[in-house]
Amino acid sequence: MVDGHVGLVLGGAATYFATINATMPKGWVRTFIHREPMVAGGIALAGLAMAMPLTIVPIRRALGFPTDNYDGDKAKKHPVPWW
User: Fold this and answer.
1) Cα end-to-end distance, the chain, whole Å
2) Is residue 2 packed enough to be buried (19+ CB in 10 Å), middle (13-18) or exposed (0-12)?
3) Which of 29, 49, 55, 65 could, after both became Cys, cross-link 60 (CB 3.0–4.6 A)?
4) pTM to 2 decimals?
5) Which range marks the domain in which residue 38 is found?
6) Nearest-angstrom CA–CA distance, 1 and 70
7) pLDDT tens, residue by residue, 63-82
C-alpha cells in the first residue's frame, strides 16, 4: 500500500529523528519547541504533508472517489484503432 517513494521519505525522516533523539539530551524536543516555535511548526506541517498520501488516498478509495492524480490513468482504457 505504501509507494516506494513515500516509504523512502518516511524512512529517511524516521532515521533522522532517531539519530537526533539518540544524540541530544533528554527533553530536547520541549526545549526546541520553546526556543524555535516557527521552525517546530514548519517541521510539524512537513510531517503532516508526508502523512497525507498515506491517509487521504485510502480514504478516497474507500469512499469511491477517483484517485487518478495519485494512481495515474489506469482506470481509463484508451481505444486502440482496429486497422
Assistant:
1) 39
2) exposed
3) 65
4) 0.60
5) 4-71
6) 12
7) 888 877 776 665 555 555 55
